[in-house]
């Protein structure tokens, strides 16, 4: 929504999250708000004149963000955040002189060894919490190198 409008939240309800078959929680909420869609000057003028924003806002918005259907796709697992213990494993591998690609292969090998059956293996490999993609592993590697070695573009190097 544009920043030069004014908004007044009248009601916000945090609803129980929807749980998918993969135990992935999707947030649900309801929001009632009033929006003044006039120009910024008019908004400030109305606010100074009246201070009754509910009466002066020309648009009422009711948002109900609820998931009521099952998200049954392996792709939905690829958007989950990485677990802290997986990040710590990656940092340990980098300390042991692993490259991002060898760390990625090592994580995947560990998942192959820990899976009890093919179905569990497919779920583990699709889940980003346990198996981050190469781009994320490379980003963590860059952060590790910047922390340990220092960035090559930082000010102290040029002095």
Largest sheet: 3 strands, antiparallel
State the distance separating the first and last CA atoms: 45 Å
The secondary-structure class comes to: alpha+beta
**Uncertain regions: pLDDT < 50 for 5+ in a row?**
46-50, 52-57
What oligomeric state do these chains adopt? single chain
Output the strand order for the largest sheet.
Answer: 1-2-3
Given the structure, what is the number of helices? 7
**Strand count:** 3
Q: Approximately how much helix is present in the residues?
A: 40-55%
Mean pLDDT figure: 76
- Assess the beta-strand content as a share of residues: 15-25%
Order of helices and strands: EEHHEHHHHH
Structural Rg: 24 Å
Number of domains: 2
Shape: flat
Protein name: 8013_t:CDS:1
Explained architecture:
Helices cover 43% and strands 21% of the residues. It is flat and about 55 Å long. The chain has 159 residues and is of the alpha+beta class. The protein has helices at residues 40-49, 53-56, 84-95, 100-114, 118-126, 134-148, 155-158; strands spanning 6-19, 25-36, 59-65. The protein has seven helices and three strands; from the N terminus they run E-E-H-H-E-H-H-H-H-H. It has two domains: 6-65, no CATH class; 79-158, no CATH class.
């Amino acid at each position: 929504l544009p920043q030069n409008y004014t908004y007044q939240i009248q009601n916000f309800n945090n609803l129980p999250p929807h749980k998918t078959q993969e135990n992935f929680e999707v947030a649900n909420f309801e929001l009632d708000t009033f929006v003044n869609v006039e120009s910024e000057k008019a908004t400030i003028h109305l606010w100074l004149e009246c201070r009754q924003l509910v009466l002066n806002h020309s648009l009422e918005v009711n948002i109900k963000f609820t998931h009521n259907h099952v998200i049954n796709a392996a792709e939905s697992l690829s958007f989950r955040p990485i677990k802290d213990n997986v990040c710590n494993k990656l940092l340990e591998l980098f300390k042991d002189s692993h490259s991002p690609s060898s760390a990625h292969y090592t994580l995947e090998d560990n998942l192959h060894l820990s899976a009890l059956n093919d179905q569990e293996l497919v779920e583990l490999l699709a889940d980003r919490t346990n198996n981050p993609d190469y781009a994320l592993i490379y980003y963590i590697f860059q952060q590790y190198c910047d922390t340990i070695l220092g960035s090559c573009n930082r000010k102290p190097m040029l002095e």
